[in-house]
Amino acid sequence: MRDVIARALSWALSVLAPRRPGRHSAEFLAAQTPEPEPAPASPWSRPWTAPSSQEVRAIFKDERIGELPDLQRERVWAAEFASIGVDYDYPTLPLGSLVTREWVAA
User: Fold this and answer.
1) pLDDT tens digit string along 50-68?
2) Residues 6+ away with beta carbon under 8 Å from 82
3) What is the pTM of this model?
């Protein structure tokens, strides 16, 4: 008997106050339209911003820099790259051999 009363009450409420469709109903899913994903930007759509190969070769093959000690040569290369706006973060020297570690007794 409770089931009949609950169904009658449910029907009466649905007629008097219509509800929105549930999340898994066909009406709700039809109303949801997915937004199209934007196309990924192509790296070729913007101009080349890095230095040309001639500029880089000129920095590395400079004869006056080739005569300097290794550490000083690295610093000059980093300064040359900084002057053209490039971060020189690939040192050719193993920096671990330049750093001396001292043990401190605490």
Assistant:
1) 888 898 899 889 898 888 8
2) 88
3) 0.45
